[in-house]
């Protein structure tokens, strides 16, 4: 066994208490204000949810289950966990390094990425996943494009698995110039180990040189492999987005298997082609504006039905905060339109839950509160100063414009209680922070020593 792999296994054992070994058998959430986020659905005040193993089995009034652990949700909002449809969790330990003397995001992250060992990957992705969970995000689509070899891929997969989050790990390579082929053999091996909680996908990149036929041949092989193995695919369309989008259209890569990320400045006819193909779209308003892609205006993309929101790197966006993502999208839209009624707060919540799940092909499992769906739930406590002063009515705007991650009191994923009474369960947070910060410091020192 290699030293690098031994380090990964050591860390996995060190933090072995991260989640319980098996789901809580029966949970009963009592008398919460339910926002089911079903299309055209209605809120359900003072309603119970019965969970057995990992599934919602009943929603109604005055439910009884003698064997259930009771969660009192009176006066609180119960809704699906947020779905972060696109992230890069491996950059978590680069927080605070952008817009300093070191420079811009891409040069800095590319330089530091080369120094990351499997144990660094494990810590970054595990810590990043915990941050998502603490913030009410129960699902992530993680575009893992820093895999230097099987040990790196294994480390990322185990980190997601250990954290308790629901995830699709989009397996990518370390070379953003796309001159090296993704390790499809290892991707296939990991797929055999996947479950419906932690699945595999393809983190695909198209050539920077769109005229390179040799490079396109490699990319085509990766794409065909993913389709053959029924793997979802994500691809960045940014920078020269219009030319990249045209390349996808001309080469007939748009399909229900493909989710396009960013698509900043895409033309209406290009978005129409995506919609007709059944493909998905993920917008990441905070990161898109931070790296200078321009203003993310939701109404520009409104004709794409399969559409979701993403964090796009906890470090790049500043934090795993879907509330901030919603507010950024909302304020950009209303400011540009000079119309304070835009966009609709209820539609924003749907975009971060049901529609985000649908955008990455997980709509059958998560994104709404329905009988038969997996129990991926957040409970928001408004009994705090930052949410005080609400007299009643539709709480959507209250949640979008006032809630913060600290208002997320309880988080349940696949029937497991991950966060209760405002605290992550089974986590030695002090040790986790120490290890994560040590990895970040070591990464920066190694990089600077070779400049």
UniProtKB/TrEMBL annotation:
Ranges for domain Amidohydrolase-related: 77-417
Pfam families found in the cross-reference section: Amidohydro_1
Record's keyword terms, sorted: Hydrolase, Signal
Signal peptide: 1-21
InterPro entries: Amidohydro-rel, Metal-dep_hydrolase_composite, Metal_Hydrolase, MTA/SAH_deaminase
Family (UniProt): Belongs to the metallo-dependent hydrolases superfamily. ATZ/TRZ family.
UniProt-recorded name of the protein: Amidohydrolase family protein
Organism ancestry: Bacteria, Pseudomonadati, Pseudomonadota, Gammaproteobacteria, Enterobacterales
């Amino acid at each position: 066994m290699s030293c690098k792999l031994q380090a990964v296994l050591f860390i996995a054992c060190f933090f072995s208490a991260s989640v319980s070994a098996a789901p809580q058998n029966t949970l009963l959430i009592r008398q919460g204000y339910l926002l089911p986020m079903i299309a055209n659905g209605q809120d359900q005040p003072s309603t119970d949810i019965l969970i057995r193993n990992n599934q919602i089995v009943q929603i109604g009034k005055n439910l009884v289950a003698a064997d259930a652990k009771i969660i009192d949700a009176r006066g609180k909002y119960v809704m699906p966990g947020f779905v972060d449809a696109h992230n890069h969790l491996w950059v978590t330990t680069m927080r605070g390094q952008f817009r300093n003397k070191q420079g811009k995001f891409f040069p800095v992250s590319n330089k530091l990425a080369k120094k990351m060992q499997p144990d660094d990957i494990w810590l970054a992705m595990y810590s990043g996943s915990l941050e998502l969970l603490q913030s009410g995000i129960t699902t992530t689509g993680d575009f893992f494009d820093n895999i230097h070899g099987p040990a790196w891929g294994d480390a990322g997969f185990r980190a997601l698995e250990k954290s308790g989050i629901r995830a699709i790990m989009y397996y990518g390579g370390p070379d953003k110039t796309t001159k090296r082929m993704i390790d499809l053999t290892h991707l296939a091996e990991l797929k055999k180990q996947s479950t419906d909680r932690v699945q595999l996908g393809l983190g695909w990149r198209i050539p920077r040189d769109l005229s390179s036929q040799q490079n396109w041949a490699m990319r085509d092989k990766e794409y065909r492999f993913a389709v053959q193995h029924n793997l979802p695919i994500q691809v960045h369309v940014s920078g020269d987005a219009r030319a990249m989008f045209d390349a996808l259209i001309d080469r007939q890569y748009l399909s229900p298997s493909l989710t396009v990320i960013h698509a900043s400045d895409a033309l209406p006819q290009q978005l129409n082609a995506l919609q007709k193909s059944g493909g998905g779209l993920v917008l990441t308003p905070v990161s898109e504006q931070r790296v200078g892609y321009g203003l993310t205006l939701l109404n520009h993309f409104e004709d794409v039905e399969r559409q979701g929101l993403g964090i796009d790197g906890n470090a790049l966006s500043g934090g795993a905060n879907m509330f901030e993502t919603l507010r950024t999208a909302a304020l950009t839209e209303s400011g540009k339109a000079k119309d304070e009624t835009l966009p609709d707060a209820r539609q924003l919540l749907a975009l971060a839950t049901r529609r985000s799940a649908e955008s990455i092909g997980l709509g059958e499992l998560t994104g709404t509160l329905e009988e038969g769906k997996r129990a991926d739930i957040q409970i928001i406590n408004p009994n705090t100063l930052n949410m005080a002063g609400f007299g009643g009515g539709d709480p959507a705007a209250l949640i979008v414009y006032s809630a913060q991650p600290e208002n997320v009191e309880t988080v349940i994923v696949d029937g497991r209680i991950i966060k209760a009474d405002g605290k992550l369960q089974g986590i030695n947070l002090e040790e986790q922070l120490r290890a994560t910060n040590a990895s970040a410091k070591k990464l920066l020192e190694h990089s600077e020593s070779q400049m």
